[in-house]
Specification:
It is a single chain. With about 290 residues, the chain is of the alpha/beta class. The chain folds into 2 domains: about 220 residues, Vaccinia Virus protein VP39 (Rossmann fold, 3-Layer(aba) Sandwich), CATH 3.40.50.150; about 50 residues, no CATH class. About 40% of the residues lie in helices and about 20% in strands. The strands form 2 sheets. Strands 4-3-2-5-6-10-9 form a 7-stranded mixed β-sheet, with helices on both faces. A 3-stranded antiparallel β-sheet has the order 1-7-8. α3 packs antiparallel against α9, α7 crosses α8 and α9 packs across α11. The radius of gyration is 18 Å and the shape is globular. The two termini are about 35 Å apart.
């Protein structure tokens, strides 16, 4: 989620991401805690319940995908951030391994899962420091949006060789309606369309691909866009206000059948890209 950061359309087949800028951003916490930055829920004064709501909806969205992975399975969380999903996996599966290169996120993840004996968090870059283990599921929770196209394909190519028979790769990535858009400056990311991700998956290997829209993420972005509109059009109100942020969130929750359900789905059916920044889950299975 980029909030009010600049997002520009880009036609390059491999837009350049500055790795050092990405690492600086996640090492600084950027006005939030490691946990809120990892889930990209900082900067808009929304209540903590908004992040919990998003996570709950995301788990519901892919619940059946997670249920297919055996309880005795080994799970690898690549780019695990502050360990939110790592902890979820550790409560479901026998063995969980995470890897994270940001020192701030790494510390937060290790603290978060310290009470769980079946988890290990490695320090490293998933592109270069993959362990030589095999896994029933590999999870990338918003990593590819910080990688160039060539890095995405190379990483997926490496990960597929670490899947057991019947294993899966699940990705959760921020997307745009079509083409490719870039966030530049202090926060750098590349937002690809679903079709563009499909092309990258084809370039990485022979996968069967399933796609699901992440409406939990959409709902949070709707709230953030309303906060941005209030800041722009009502400048006499405090820019940062937990009270106004909470009022925005609970107003949306109170009208959820329209604001969080009917409206985004209706606009999607009409081909109207709102909110502009979306999010999708992808499940990749090897073609046997």
């Amino acid at each position: 989620m980029t909030g009010e950061k600049s997002i520009n359309h880009h036609d390059s087949t491999d837009p350049a991401i500055d790795d050092a800028a990405v690492k600086r951003y996640f090492d600084s916490a950027s006005g939030g805690t490691a946990a809120t930055v990892s889930m990209m829920t900082h900067g808009h004064n929304l209540p903590a319940s908004a992040a919990r709501y998003r996570l709950h909806k995301e788990i519901q969205t892919i619940g059946d995908w997670l249920n297919v992975v055996p309880d005795s399975g080994r799970v690898f969380d690549v780019g695990c951030g502050a360990g939110t999903w790592t902890e979820i996996f550790a409560r479901r599966y026998k063995t969980v391994l995470g890897i994270e290169q940001s020192s701030l996120m790494l510390k937060a993840a290790r603290v978060r899962v310290a009470h769980l004996p079946n988890v290990k968090i490695l320090e490293g870059d998933g592109r270069h420091d993959l362990p030589e283990d095999s896994f029933d599921m590999v999870f990338l929770g918003g990593l590819c949006m910080y990688l160039n196209d060539s890095d995405v394909m190379a990483l997926l190519h490496s990960l597929k060789s670490r899947l057991v028979k019947g294993g899966v790769i699940i990705l959760r990535e921020s997307t745009v309606y079509q083409g490719v858009s870039l966030a530049r400056g202090e926060y750098q990311a590349v937002y690809r369309s679903v079709n563009r991700y499909r092309q990258l998956f084809d370039g990485a290997g022979s996968f069967r691909v399933e796609v699901r829209r992440n409406y939990g993420y959409t709902n949070l972005v709707i709230a953030e866009e309303l906060v941005n509109l209030r800041r722009r059009w009502l400048p006499f109100l405090p820019r940062d206000s937990t009270t106004l942020g909470s009022l925005t969130w609970w107003a949306l929750r109170g009208t959820a059948p329209i604001s969080f359900w009917t409206l985004p789905r209706m606009l999607s059916q009409l081909g109207i890209p709102w909110p502009k920044l979306q999010n999708h889950f992808f499940r990749l299975r090897l073609v046997e």
